[in-house]
Amino acid sequence: MWDDWKKIVVLLLPFFLVIVAAIAWLVLKRTIRSRFRMERQLRDDPDINEWLVVFGWSRKVLYGPTILMCLVAAALMLARETRAIPNLNAGIVGGIWLAVFFVNFLVDEYEMSVKVLLIALLLLLVLFLWLLFLGWVVPFVRAFRHLAVSVNSTGYLVIAALFLVATFVSWLRGLFYYVALTPNYLNIQTGPTETGEQVSREEYSTRIDTGDFLERLFGFGRIIITFSDQRRQPVVLLVGRIGRKAAKLESIRGKLAVDRYQAARENG
To answer: What is the per-residue burial (b if ≥16 Cβ within 10 Å, else e) of 179-218?
Structure first.
């Protein structure tokens, strides 16, 4: 009898959670101020022609190539496990995955400007020529056989899921922690309700940072907001499609310059 009740509870639990989520949404939808609601509000405002709403991604979003490689490796290992490709070398697949992860780790951990990247490539070239001169290239490559990584399809899927969850949490947080820039003010939202702060256009400045070359190759860069009040820490946002957002931000700031010039001319 108890086992029947457990099965009923497990069966009805997802439906119960959906109902609770729906009720919570109906109750809170008028108080929740998400990024999408702010964009709609700015779009419908007849006095605002240009605006930009951005949030900061977690740096785990830079592991996109690793996630893709995890999915490819999982598919290959599944083909090996089902005997579709029985002779597939799991160590080679794992080695390629490890190389992609290592490059992603470098992008995440270190800031690679063009100068630093060229120096690193030059050092690798010098190392290769030194090994070639000594005749150690083949033994050096063979030494990497001991680093062969063998993971089954489930393992690769779990790794991909971990990075996807971290990225999704970053996106979910960005629904309620974001910055809205308009020609007249800066709105800093710090919660799911109306918790936020408006800063007038004279009290802040913006800067685009795309100094990390590898990060820029992935389409990411930073929008840095500094304040006239030196006691306030700058707001640094890692954003995607940085080229498009930088152009939009320049247009907004350019409009500020025109407004200031017109105001000064009228006062004069």
So the answer is: bbbbbeebbbbeeeeeebeebebeebebebbeebbbbbeb
CA neighbor of 183 nearest in space, from 264, 254, 235: 254
DSSP element (H, E) containing 185 = strand 185-190
- Integer Rg of the chain from CA: 26
Tokens 């996807």 belong to 164
Residues with Cβ within 8 Å of residue 245, at least 6 apart in sequence? 52, 54, 223, 239
Over 80: is that where the pLDDT of 202 sits? Answer: yes
**From CA 35, how far away is CA 250, in angstroms rounded?**
21
Tokens of 44: 């419908």
- pTM score, whole prediction: 0.71
Residue 212, SS3? coil
Residue 147 has pLDDT above 80, yes or no: no
Q: Where are the beta strands (DSSP E) in 191-234?
A: 196-200, 204-209, 220-227
* Cβ-count burial 50-80 (b if 16+ within 10 Å, e if not): ebbbbbbbbebbbbbebbebbebbbebbbeb
Tens digits of residue pLDDT in 13-69: 777 777 876 776 666 566 677 888 888 888 888 888 888 999 999 888 888 889 999
DSSP annotation string for 83-104: TSSTT--HHHHHHHHHHHHHHH
Strand partners, 227: 204
The gap between the terminal CA atoms of the chain, to the nearest Å, is 88
